[in-house]
Fold this sequence. Notes:
16% of the residues are buried. The chain has 109 residues and is of the alpha+beta class. A hairpin with a 5-residue loop joins strand 3 (59-65) and strand 4. The protein has one domain. It contains 3 helices and 5 strands, in the order E-H-H-E-E-E-E-H.
Amino acid sequence: MYDMYMFDLRKILGFEWDEGNINKNEKKHKVSWKECEEIFNNKPLVILPDFLHSNVEKRFEALGRTNDNKQLVIIFTLRANFIRIISARLQNKKERKKFQSITILSRQL
């Protein structure tokens, strides 16, 4: 069974960036590495398992907002206590709706 709560964000030491991934999302989707990091510090933040792409390593989908209120979806994996960003882009209409629904539901609980 895939446990989406296998990690505690408080134990994350930072982000794993290298020449191969630090500017990839800015070139492809106009999302900077700084914006990627921001959503993990902002609320609300929704983290879900990415079952479809977890064949080699477990991947997660993060839905959140930057400091400038850009709504992003970030696909990432964990390596030791570091977040490794796989992909980052603006949320599409379906993702915005999911993000809104989950955040409203969580406030009601």
